[in-house]
Amino acid sequence: MFKRILVANRGEIALRIIRACRDMGIEAVAVYSRADRDAAYLNLAHDAICIGPEPAQLSYLNAAAIISAAEVADVQAIHPGYGFLAENPTFAQMCRDCRIEFIGPSAEAMRMLGNKVEARRLARRVKVPPVPGSPGPVANEDEAVAVAEKIGFPVMIKAAAGGGGRGMRPAHNEATLRTSFRNARAEAEAAFKDGSLYIEKLIERPRHVEVQILADQHGNTVHLWERDCSTQRRHQKLIEESPSPQISARTRAKLCAAAVRLARAAQYYSAGTCEFLVDEDEDFYFLEVNTRIQVEHPVTELVTGIDLVQWQIRIAAGERLKLKQDDVRQNGVAIECRINAESPDDGFRPCPGRIEQYLPPGGPGVRVDTHVYGGYVVSPHYDSLLAKLLVHRGTRAEAVSSMRRALSEFVVQPVKTTIPLHLALMEHSDFVKGNVDTGFVERVMTAGIRGPAPTQAGPQPSKSPGAN
Amino acid sequence: MQRPASIEKPMDLKQIKSLVQLMIENDLSRIELREGDTHILLRRGHPGTGNPAAAPPVVAPAAPVAATLPPAEQPAARYIRSPMVGTFYAAADPESKPFVGVGDEVEPDTVVCLVEAMKVFNEIKAEISGRITKVLVQNAQAVEYDQPLFEVAPA
C-alpha cells in the first residue's frame, strides 16, 4: 500500500481524497495555487506545496509542476480527482514514466475511451449502440434526408464543430429538415467557420442515466448500479439520484450489464462511469465513458455503502476487489444537490466573494461534502461548486422531504447560491413524481419558477462588509 | 512547507499604508491599533513639537509581531522567489562556488541559483537589482512556487 499520495486537485474533491488517505493511514500531500494558499483543508494534509500562481493553466493544469512536487515530496502515487488533469492520458503516462503510480485507469484505456469515434466503435462492438446517426458529416440536403428516413424522424441536425448544446436544430419531417439544414449550414459557417453537419436521431425527453463501474487490475469488474442525472441545465448536472425513479428493474439490469461489457472490452480498471440516454420506451443509447471519479460519486457511496475513493487507491496499489456483484446492493434512495456560487436569477452568473455566514444542514441521513466555511473566500479562478448536499433515506419520498429540510437549513451568506433553485425543483411536482428528463430544468426556468424567498431557519445575517 | 498547527496572521502592509494615509489626510500624530496578537503603533511628527507635518511618520510595530513576521509577506521586490517547485542548488555543480552569496550585487539577469525539476536544471535569474542580504534556503533543499530564496536590499 502507498505510504504517501499527492492530491493533484483542489477544493472539495481534494478534501475528499485527503480524508480517504487519513482513513487508510496514508500521508496525503496537497498541492495548491497561490489563490488557495489560505484554504483550511490544506491543514488536514500531511504536507502542502505551492505549485504556481492563480491561473489553473500555471498551477492545477501544470503537469510539470505537479510531478516536480510529487518528486520533491517523495510520493508513490498521484490522485488526480476530477477535472484538471484527471482524464489527460499524457499526464497519466508521465506519472508512470516517473515511477509514480497514477490513481486511475491505464493511459491506453483513457485515450481510447476519451476518443469519441473509438469509444462509439467499441460500444457498437459490445452491442451497446450509441445514438443512431450518420457516420460522419453529410454532404448535402438529400443525403441528410436519406439518413433521416433510415433512422427515423425526428432527427437532430448537429454542427460537427459545435458541442455542449451549440449548433443543434431539430427536424420532425422532410420539409423542416430541408429548411433547417440550409439555415444550420449558414449558422455553422458563421459561428464555427465550419459548416459540416451530421444527423442524429432526436431522443425526445431523454433521461440521462449512468452506471458506476469499479474494476481491479486482475480482471474483476463490478457495477455499483446507476445514477439518474436528468436534472441538468446546459449539460451541467444540478441534481443526481440513485436508484433512477424512472426505469424498470429490467432496464436497470440491461444498463448495468452493458456498462460492465463495455468496461471489460476496454480492459478498464479503477473507478469509471458509463453514461447513457434512455428514451420514453426505455430503449437506451451509449453516450460516453468518464474515466475518472465523478463529482456525484457520493450518491453511489451512500446507496451501496462502498467507499469509492478508498477502492481507487487500493486498486492502484494492486489489490484485488473484495466485492462480488451479488454483494453490491442498492439500499434506500440517495439524492445530491450541487450547491454552486451562482445566481440562477442572473443567467447563473458566478458569484465569487467572501462567505461571511455559513451554517450547513445536518441530522439523520444528511451528508455535506465541502471545502468551504465561514470566512472562506470563493475565488473567481476556478469552478463555482461550493458544496455537495446529499441525503440518504429509506424511500424516495423521505429523501425528497429530508432534502427540502436540509436545503432550508442551509445558510450561505452573502454569496448568491443555487440553494433557492434547488428548493424550487425539489418542490416541483414533476421532480416529486420522479418524472424528469434533461429538458426539465430549462422548461421550469422558462416558465419563470424562481426559488421561494429563502425562509432560512438560521439567524438573520448581520451586516456584512465586502458583500458583492 | 510543513503545515503549521495554526496559521500565523502576517502583518498587513496594505493596512499600515492606509493607516499612514489616514494620518496624513487627517493631520493625526498618533494611531494605535490592537487586533488579537497584532499591535501597531504609528507616530507622526517630532515628539513634543505638536507639529505633525514636520517629519515623515514612524512605524513602530510591537516586538512580538516583528519577531514573527514571515519573510513571504514583505514587498515582492525585496525577495527573489522561486518561480517553480523543485530542488534548490546554490552552485552550478558540487565542485563550484555558489552563484551568489551575502553581499553580492545582482542585476536582473544575474543567475542566482538553479532549481531542478524533473531532472531539468533551470537557471533562476534575480529579476531585480540590489545586494544580497540573506540566503534563505540551503543547498539541495526542496522549494515550492513563490518561496523566498534570497533577501535583497534594493539598489
General description of the model:
The complex is a heterodimer of chains A (468) and B (155). In chain A, 32% of the residues lie in helices and 26% in strands. By secondary structure, chain A is α+β, with helices and mostly antiparallel strands. Chain A has three domains: 4-103, Rossmann fold, CATH 3.40.50; 141-201, Dna Ligase, domain 1, CATH 3.30.1490.20; 207-446, 2-Layer Sandwich (D-amino Acid Aminotransferase, Chain A, domain 1), CATH 3.30.470.20. Chain A is globular and about 65 Å long. Chain B folds into two domains: 13-69, no CATH class; 76-154, OB fold (Dihydrolipoamide Acetyltransferase, E2P) (Beta Barrel), CATH 2.40.50.100. Chain B has a four-stranded antiparallel β-sheet with strand order 4-11-9-6, with no helix packed on it. A four-stranded antiparallel β-sheet of chain B has the order 8-7-5-10, with no helix packed on it. Chain B has a three-stranded antiparallel β-sheet with strand order 1-2-3. In chain B, a hairpin with a 2-residue loop joins strand 1 and strand 2 (38-43). The longest helix of chain B is centred in the first third of the chain and has 14 residues, at 13-26. The model of chain B is unreliable at 4-9 and 47-69 (pLDDT under 50). The chains are: A alpha+beta (468), B mainly beta (155). The A-B interface holds A 34, 38, 42-43, 45-53, 59, 64-65, 67-69, 71-73, 98 and B 1-3, 7, 84-87, 117-118, 142, 144-147.
Descriptive terms for the model:
heterodimer; A: 468 residues; alpha+beta; Rossmann fold; Dna Ligase, domain 1; D-amino Acid Aminotransferase, Chain A, domain 1; 3 domains; 8-stranded antiparallel sheet; 5-stranded parallel sheet; 14 helices; 32% helix; globular; disordered C terminus; B: 155 residues; mainly beta; OB fold (Dihydrolipoamide Acetyltransferase, E2P); 2 domains; 4-stranded antiparallel sheet; 2 helices; 12% helix; 35% strand
